[in-house]
Amino acid sequence: NLKMIGPAISFIAIVAMVFLPLTFITGLYGMNVKGLPYAEEPWAFDAITGACAFIAAGIVIYFVRRHWLRG
C-alpha cells in the first residue's frame, strides 16, 4: 500500500502546480481594482482566459515531456 502513496502524492502535486498560476491570475483580476493592465479593455476577458489556457497547457506539456505525467 505504501508504494501507491508516492504516485498519488506526485499526481496531486502536479495538479496543484497546474492550478497555482491560474488561481493567482484569476484572483488578481477578480479583485476589481483600478490600475491592472488591460482590465478596462473589452477584449481583456478573452485574453486572460487564453493566457490561462496557454499557461496550463505549457505546464502540462512540460510535465509530459519530463515523463512526470503520462499523456
Concise structural overview:
The protein is an all-alpha fold and 71 residues long. It has helices spanning 2-29, 44-65. It is built from two helices and no strands.
List the helices and strands and how they pair.
Blueprint: H1 2-29, H2 44-65
Helix pairs in contact: 1-2
Could you explain the architecture of this structure?
- The protein is mainly α and 71 residues long.
- 70% of the residues lie in helices and 0% in strands.
- The longest helix is centred in the N-terminal third of the chain and has 28 residues, at 2-29.
- It is elongated, with a radius of gyration of 16 Å.
- The mean pLDDT is 87.
- Enumerate how many helices there are, as a single number: 2
Class from secondary-structure proportions: mainly alpha
Rg over C-alpha atoms, rounded to the nearest angstrom: 16 Å
Instruction: Please count the beta strands (DSSP E, at least 2 residues each).
Output: 0
Shape: elongated
Q: Which sheet architecture does the biggest sheet show?
A: none
Distance from N terminus to C terminus (CA atoms, Å) equals: 24 Å
**Topology order in helix (H) and strand (E) letters:** HH
Strand content: under 5%
Percent of residues in helices comes to over 70%
Assembly type of the chains comes to single chain
Low-confidence sequence ranges: none
- The chain-level mean pLDDT equals 87
List keywords for this structure.
single chain, mainly alpha, 71 residues
